[in-house]
From TrEMBL, chain A:
CDD domains, alphabetized: ATP-synt_V_A-type_beta_C (cd18112), ATP-synt_V_A-type_beta_N (cd18118), V_A-ATPase_B (cd01135)
A GO biological process held by the record: proton motive force-driven plasma membrane ATP synthesis
The organism of origin for this protein: Haloferax marisrubri
Gene: atpB
Functional note: Component of the A-type ATP synthase that produces ATP from ADP in the presence of a proton gradient across the membrane. The B chain is a regulatory subunit.
Highest taxon listed in the record's lineage: Archaea
Alphabetical UniProt keywords: ATP synthesis, Cell membrane, Hydrogen ion transport, Ion transport, Membrane, Transport
Protein name: A-type ATP synthase subunit B
Amino acid sequence: MKEYQTITEISGPLVFAEVDEPIGYDEIVEIETPQGETKRGQVLESSEGLVAIQVFEGTTGIDRNASVRFLGETLKMPVTEDLLGRVLDGSGQPIDGGPEIVPDERRDIVGAAINPYSREYPEEFIQTGVSAIDGMNTLVRGQKLPIFSASGLPHNNLALQIARQATVPEDEDSGEESEFAVVFGAMGITQEEANEFMEDFERTGALERSVVFTNLADDPAVERTVTPRLALTTAEYLAFDKDYHVLVILTDMTNYCEALREIGAAREEVPGRRGYPGYMYTDLAQLYERAGRIEGREGSVTQIPILTMPGDDDTHPIPDLTGYITEGQIYIDRDLNSQGIRPPINPLPSLSRLMDDGIGEGLTREDHADVSDQMYAAYAEGEDLRDLVNIVGREALSERDNKYLDFAERFEAEFVNQGFDTDRSIEDTLDIGWDLLSMLPKSELNRIDEELIEDYYEEDAESVEAEA
Amino acid sequence: MSQATQDSVREDGVIASVSGPVVTARGLDARMNDVVYVGDEGLMGEVIEIEGDITTIQVYEETSGVGPGEPVESTGEPLTVDLGPGMMDAIYDGVQRPLDVLEEKMNSAFLDRGVDAPGIDLEKKWEFEPTVSVGDEVATGDVVGTVPETVTIEHKVMVPPDFEGGEVVAIEEGEFSVTETVAELDNGEEITMHQEWPVRQARPAAEKKTPREPLVSGQRILDGLFPIAKGGTAAIPGPFGSGKTVTQHQLAKWADADIVVYVGCGERGNEMTEVIEDFPELDDPKTGNPLMARTCLIANTSNMPVAARESCIYTGITIAEYYRDMGYDVALMADSTSRWAEAMREISSRLEEMPGEEGYPAYLAARLSEFYERAGYFTTVNGEEGSVSVIGAVSPPGGDFSEPVTQNTLRIVKTFWALDADLAERRHFPAINWNESYSLYQEQLDPWFVENVEDDWAEERQWAVDVLDEENELQEIVQLVGKDALPEDQQLTLEIARYLREAYLQQNAFHPTDTYCSPEKTYGILTAIHAFNDEAFKALEAGVPVEEIQAIEAAPRLNRIGVQEDWEAYIEDLKAEITEQLRELY
């Protein structure tokens, strides 16, 4: 391995060095500063005689005398089942004081695309125990369903609740529920947030079945571009080689995208929207698309990326591009949060694209799809009427309209608001749904099959309501 | 992708630099858009710029680990597709490599690189039946024989466009592979079942005609209000979650085209899997055979290499044109053209080209119009009639239709189905906004509907449009003063409009019956609502309060017509009941 002391330019996270041998694109580089500190980086551009290197740990301390070593291989993640229970830093080094990790294998972190032909369509219901998700935006194994949140909202609590409660109701013979292995990738979150996660993992014993990667807010930003790839490489290994059902939580994707922008700017690339690089869609897709199921393999990778929308704006490039890649999204809502609704999930803009195939008879319950549809329509109608009430008052509205207003209120207070510690089965969720729908006259339930109405509609609910 | 012939190999070069999917080579002798093999692993790429000794190449595969000094081999041929029997029921990546063959060759569920495979099976034997005999004169494009490609599709073997044609001197029935000669002409030309065609070049046709037949989609709002013609173009723009992909899938499933080419361009892997799993199980409403038997899938998901995403649209339309030449009506769905445009942008910015609007290259509009112009209703070279209809999904950032891809698309296409996030949020599906959408084919297609469905098709449609327009205006007032402040007749109009929205415009894609609605049923539902409207207004004039009219028991059953198998009887009953219940009130 040759060493070079040929650095010609240092700019932000980038170092340019002259070389006299061909260097592969994406290859790993070690840079040793005159102080003896070693930093790692990756080749961003390779041409004859000159390479551009992106340094993960920041370029502080590097000068033109620093020596550059090319390792002749692309970035790899050492993977083994023993990673479960371990805490690693953002570049994959253990930080929990535990024993050294002896890898079974070292895997390229870029990760090849799954052949669409080899995929298996995800349709196994995951019970998160959260009504607003299970009932209205069902998650299935192998799905990628991000949480769209914003600063100051309790998205971490929701992520933890899902990580804690998520199970897949297994077939009735074995009566067992299978738990998930959790791979947690933190990018640029604060120490406090990280502690919150770690404490919860330890308290609930979830750490034993988790692998934690933490890149903190004061860790180098460039490292953030690597962290999710390490996490996903580990997840793929556990899922497709070791038959685990893996839940990957990535937080916060906004910090990841900021890091991409930083590198793009340092390379003087032509920027796309709001200064983010034009290839951000492709880059994000290479992360999100690593969720899924593969035909003939037991395990699965389910992703819940969390992102904070700058200015609560979902047309911002980060949530926008994410929404185009992921299979739906869960919105955390500021208004609901300030009303004390926990978890403050707003079901109206939320969506799970894979829901339709994961629910129904034999999977959840025969009435699931219809109940969910009807509640959407009814809540949307109630929401619309709220604007009107502000102007004309309740008295000016018809009886029908008033029912919808009541429905919207009870929907939030009873269906959505369950607290971060309540674990509801899907039956409970749907029964609460029928409780609420039975406030409306039968003729309004135009999205529910007539036979299901006969079976589930609670006849006296309406009159009870009227007396009360 | 076609196995490039080796005899035309030109001088090879070496890699000078690598930056993501863009590689430059020195000393390479190649023409623009020639296919080259890059590096020790032979990654497939295409020449996109030549400057002095430096040739710039976009590589269709991941370039990690590739470095300067590695060889670049020229094939001397542009990017072509293999055309011949075997394309139906196939699933390809963006450069026509069959994904099932790749899985087998790579022996992995993950896509490795440096593996090539021909687009059609070169070994497989097909049953060839001649349609001409020795002594017949055949010209370019003429059919010389047929092959049963799938249960649905009879593949026609044609004289390739670059042949001159002449007298048939030998032709035989029997089993042949696609590379074996099935017919010989007197000028020495040998016809096989295999053609190659460069993807960036449109296949020739005799004449482009005005389309006069609808592409019936089985979707009420499309057929009823905003129809597209066979050979027409349509755009479906919408923010995420508004149902672009479901709409595209519905069209791919139920449109009455002979052939469907579905291009998943930069979209989700699971969506393509859904198509692969669903289509073989679904029956074509026209023939009763599995849908897959008339479908060709091109899947270049968002995490597959970006350069192949740029080419997948062309691969798709070239395959579509080939079947058009046989006289088939082909529908091409491209989901999504925005990803294609973004791939262009990404490559363009790596080339450091001067950006146009929002970073897109200045040639964006030209590329889009070039692509959509390849659609149309044609007289083919051999005098048959065939069509290519193109339906492109557009994914505007933030749902903002003023962005360059949507705007440039709208300048070309004649049908616009605007998806609306508000409608999607209240689960009104398909979430096509009836106020913003339009179809410029309406008048051209009305004669067909009059002849094939009902005489007053256009009048009924106009009635529905008028009611919906009026609702739109009234809603503004309702927002201010509430519904009860409106005069009774306007309240009733709102009620009618509600049924139009719920029973007519909404359609459940996941309900086994409602998912496909014939034009007759579409018309039937509309007339049922119209009949309710007429009777209701009569009752109102007779002094019945609007609340009582709204409360009749039969009316909500209008919403159930869609899910009825035996809808004709159901509508008759319902009309009678509505009339009876309303007349009882006065």
